[in-house]
Specification:
The chain has 15 helices and no strands. It is mainly alpha-helical. Helix 4 crosses helix 11, helix 11 runs antiparallel to helix 14 and helix 13 runs antiparallel to helix 14. The longest helix is centred in the N-terminal third of the chain and has 33 residues. About 30% of the residues are buried. The C terminus is likely disordered.
Length: about 270
């Protein structure tokens, strides 16, 4: 039986192998082209330029703040979807995942209609508190959190559904309050899922473009993040665009390395 299984695994139909190789080439060649065209002799100087440093600093700051917001709001939402018995839970889950398939530009327009000075909520923020979110750094954070939160919610919800609930039941039997049980039992049990979701959320926020440029605009030092800087540099300095793209590529690779133990090796 084992020899027959090894024989079956060793047979590779050409009709599947050829498209698979083409798909691999299609995905890898653009990355190779980016590395091949990179201005390696001047890479260090370009990375230390004020424009790149400013865009990188703003991107890291906004992505980190957006991730904090997503953690603060997304973990309770994931718990609600995984554990609470609420009516319309399927509809709520569908609404949570809408930003995954919604074009980012459309998300930016939606945020503008809600948080703009004459938006559904923005008009009250501006009239009562003098707060205007569009075309500001906080607006970048809001836009990034909007598109990145579903990644965190889905990851944490999956971890909660896979977690063993017997420990929580034992804690409740011993008299622990629901909040204490969540802090000391549930959250540590799903911490790998929270970390994975947080990393994905941060990486998605770092690479956000469409919703950011629509809702927050493009103002150097205030809303020009790395993706926006790449878009602008393509028109005037392609080498700078390549350098900025390399930085984002390095971040993506770092995310894959971080999640290797959880996903990639687990699928082998």
């Amino acid at each position: 039986m084992s020899s027959r299984r090894r024989l079956t695994r060793g047979r590779h139909p050409v009709v599947l192998v050829l498209p698979a190789v083409c798909a691999l080439v299609f995905l890898v060649v653009p990355l190779v082209g980016l590395l091949a065209r990179a201005p390696w002799p001047t890479l260090a100087d370009r990375l230390s330029s004020p424009e790149v440093g400013e865009a990188l600093r703003l991107s890291l700051l906004c992505a980190t703040l957006a991730t904090v917001i997503c953690l603060f709001l997304g973990i309770p939402l994931a718990w609600l979807l995984a554990r609470a018995r609420v009516p319309g839970r399927g509809l709520i889950r569908a609404l949570v995942t809408v930003p995954l398939v919604l074009p980012p530009v459309v998300g930016g327009v939606a945020l503008l209609l809600v948080f703009g000075r004459r938006g559904l909520l923005g008009q009250y923020l501006y009239d009562w508190f003098g707060v205007s979110l569009p075309f500001t750094t906080p607006g970048v954070v809001i836009a990034e959190a909007f598109v990145a939160m579903p990644f965190l919610v889905i990851s944490v919800e999956g971890a909660l559904r896979a977690a063993d609930t017997r420990y929580e039941e034992a804690a409740a039997t011993l008299g622990a309050s629901p909040w204490y049980t969540f802090r000391r039992v549930t959250l540590p049990a799903v911490l790998p899922g929270v970390v994975a979701g947080g990393v994905l959320c941060w990486a998605r926020a770092l690479g956000e473009f469409g919703a950011t440029i629509t809702f927050a605009g493009n103002f150097p030092g205030r809303t020009t993040t790395m993706p926006l800087a790449v878009y602008l540099a393509l028109e005037t300095d392609p080498d700078a665009a390549i350098v900025l793209s390399l930085v984002l590529l390095a971040v993506s690779v770092a995310v894959l390395v971080t999640l290797r133990e959880r996903w990639i090796r687990g699928a082998v």
